[in-house]
Write a structure and sequence with these properties.
heterodimer; A: mainly alpha; B: 326 residues; mainly alpha; 3 domains; 4-stranded mixed sheet; 4 strands; 52% helix; elongated; disordered N terminus
């Protein structure tokens, strides 16, 4: 779809397709079957789009995790025992940072897996608030994160080939 | 041929200056200052450089030009100094090299591998078989520039696009020395047309499959004779022998074949290197922990060296069996 949209100069559709592609790993191995359908120039522009998205995401997500930003409100009273002096649980910090490098990790399954891994590691630690957190807090975190990421994606456009 | 005639074939005149390019009406290009004696034709490049040549020479080198020049010219066709002009799509730099290959003058060698490929493509287009063979022979002799580093990806893409089969096969093989990722491909991506990139990806997968199969079959060989050289560091003894398990270690570290092929490609050289590293770990003297690979380079290691050479040769053969196209 991206290839066709680029071919016929449909920028809006090309952008939508490029954003959809972000949900998948962007590597030669993962795209192998589709490589024959995308002209090299379009693939090059898609890669440039991906690089730019990653740079903006990394910057915006870093800002998102600084004190007094959106994530603080979403965390509410959550205090992870592994946090130390930081307000943000390390597992969450790692997950958010990883999205900047690999945007396809931004999905609910990966988010829940990050939560589950932390629960497994801290399962016997009754002092960790994450273990007994209400369902509302992860939901708030997810919504705040989604808002930042969607804002980041709006900053990047595709280049017409 | 005199140096005067040589310079007539060089790219010295006829290029439009920037002012002329800015004009909406393109002025007629200037003919070359020093004419080729008895020139009978002008070939003009895409950037408006005129080359005075002989019809007969061009016709001998290229049957396509031979046919073209045997046709009657239209009465309104352009001429310069009474010489008919043939407009070509190649640029002046390329034609300068090409024309220098037609005459007994100093050859103008392209200064990059990309330009060399475009020169070969021009030979192919005009069916200049002899010139193309000469260039390929010079490439084999190393007289012409080869692709450097990840330029091989671009070389592959250009060769594919221009239908230069030997160069494509050679470049495909050379890409195995590099990871094939978007980072390494970079701007070379723009040169890939049609299914060239997918074909290259699949070629690499087939190469990997063949190398793994060759490694596995090599493991079937019996282990070497155990020997116990003397450790000069601690006075202990350690074992030196061909160990198929080390090859298994190499393969198991590369087991996610699809991703690995693109990020960490297998080649005969790096398989042997990894085997040697794996073997080095086994070489550690159980008493002092030292690695003795180079400590005793005589009899015990001769068997290992021989096995490694045999392995490398078998792996190279396995790669040779992989076709670039299916």
């Amino acid at each position: 779809m991206y290839s066709l949209a680029q071919k016929y100069g449909f920028r809006e559709e090309a952008l939508q397709a490029a954003q959809t592609i972000l949900k998948h790993p962007m590597s030669i191995a993962d795209l192998e079957d589709k490589l024959g359908m995308i002209p090299g120039t379009a693939l090059y522009e898609l890669w440039n789009y991906y690089v730019e998205v990653r740079a903006i995401l990394a910057s915006d997500l870093k800002e998102f995790m600084t004190p007094a930003t959106g994530i603080s409100g979403a965390l509410g009273s959550l205090r992870c025992s592994a946090s130390g002096s930081s307000q943000i649980p390390p597992w969450l910090c790692n997950y958010i940072t990883s999205i900047g490098n690999t945007p396809h990790l931004f999905n609910l399954v990966e988010f829940n897996m990050a939560v589950a891994r932390h629960m497994r590691d801290e399962g016997n630690n009754y002092r960790c608030a994450c273990v007994s957190v209400s369902t509302q807090i992860p939901l708030n975190i997810w919504e705040a994160l989604a808002s930042v990421i969607h804002g980041s994606l709006k900053k990047v456009s595709v280049i017409e080939v | 041929m005199s140096s005067q005639a040589e310079s007539a074939l060089s790219l010295v005149q006829g290029r439009e200056d920037s002012q002329a390019k800015a004009n909406s009406i393109t002025p007629p290009p200037e003919p070359l200052d020093i004419p080729v004696p008895d020139a009978s034709l002008i070939i003009r490049s895409s950037d408006l450089v005129n080359f005075r040549v002989h019809k007969s020479v061009l016709a001998m080198a290229s049957p396509i030009f031979g046919d073209l020049l045997s046709l009657p010219q239209p009465s309104d066709s352009e001429s310069v100094d009474g010489l008919p002009v043939v407009q070509l799509s190649e640029d002046g730099e390329l034609l300068n090299s090409l024309v220098s290959m037609l005459y007994p003058v100093r050859r103008v060698i392209p200064d990059s591998h990309d330009k060399l490929l475009y020169l070969l493509a021009a030979c192919q287009k005009y069916d200049m078989v002899q010139v193309q063979s000469y260039i390929r022979a010079e490439v084999d002799r190393g007289s012409f520039p080869g692709p450097v580093g990840t330029e091989v990806f671009r070389a592959y893409a250009i060769a594919c696009g221009k239908g230069l089969i030997p160069e494509m096969v050679n470049a495909a093989r050379l890409t195995l020395d590099h990871p094939m990722t978007f980072e390494t491909l970079g701007e070379s991506l723009r040169f890939f047309d049609g299914s060239a990139l997918r074909d290259l990806a699949r070629y690499r997968m087939r190469c990997r499959d063949n190398l793994v199969t060759a490694c596995l079959s090599f493991q079937g060989l019996p282990a070497g004779t155990p020997s116990s050289p003397y450790c000069s560091s601690c006075g202990g003894y350690y074992s030196v022998r061909w160990d198929p398990n080390c090859l298994q270690q190499v393969l198991s570290r590369n087991d996610d074949s699809k991703i690995q092929e693109f990020t960490n490609p297998l080649t005969p050289s790096n398989i042997c290197e990894e085997y040697s590293k794996a073997r080095q770990r086994c070489f550690k003297c159980t008493t002092c922990g030292s690695v003795h690979v180079t400590a005793n380079d005589s009899t015990p290691h001769a068997e290992l060296k021989s096995k490694l050479a045999e392995l490398k040769s078998e792996l190279a053969e396995a790669l040779d069996k992989v076709h670039t196209f299916l």
